[in-house]
Specification:
Layout lengths: L9 E11 L4 E4 L5 E4 L7 H7 L7 E6 L13 E5 L14 E5 L5 E9 L3 E5 L9 E12 L25
Antiparallel strand pairs: 1-2, 1-3, 1-9, 4-9, 5-8, 6-7, 7-8
């Protein structure tokens, strides 16, 4: 069997655990492998650079400061919008993450912070922004993008990046 290294344009299947600077569990990949297209910017740059050249079976532990991971928490990314702009979102509730335009009109994941009769307050910061993090990663498989189909847990989140490359379940 030919073992491929992770390089630009290849797909990596991995499991991961993210811990905060105190060692507390923040996130885990779960039962399904996490899948990403290397070199497309879907992971923090320092993590993606550390994965470059790794192969199936390799393990990696990497400490990232907040600015190297998902950035510092930015209060300017919290904004209030008319509730009617988000009425199409079913069961809008506090803490819910939705896709929508930020205050600059860029499509982002937004976390609902407050709901009033007429307005909704949204936070466009990444949920892990402002946190120093430790990534523990195991590479399960590396494949050429052209050989991959039926991808679950894609890193892009909405698969607009991957639609031309993959067929999703």
């Amino acid at each position: 069997m030919n073992v491929l290294p992770i390089t630009q344009g290849r797909v990596a299947f991995l499991t991961y655990t993210i811990r905060d600077s105190h060692g507390d569990l923040v996130e885990h990949s779960g039962d399904e492998p996490f899948v990403y297209l290397h070199g497309e910017g879907s992971l923090p740059l320092k993590l993606e650079n550390a994965l470059e050249g790794k192969q199936e079976g390799d393990h990696l532990t990497l400490n990232l400061r907040a600015e190297e991971a998902y950035g510092e928490w930015d209060p300017s990314l919290i904004f209030t919008a008319p509730l009617m702009d988000y009425e199409k979102t079913e069961d809008l509730s506090l803490g819910m993450c939705i896709e929508g335009p930020d205050q600059k009109g860029e499509l982002r994941t937004l976390r609902v912070e407050r709901i009033t009769k007429d307005e909704v307050t949204l936070d466009a910061n990444h949920p892990l922004s402002g946190m120093d993090l430790v990534f523990e990663v195991e590479i399960l498989k590396v494949a050429e993008a052209s050989e991959v189909s039926n991808v679950k847990n894609c890193a892009c989140g909405n698969c607009t990046l991957c639609e031309a490359r993959f067929t999703h379940n």
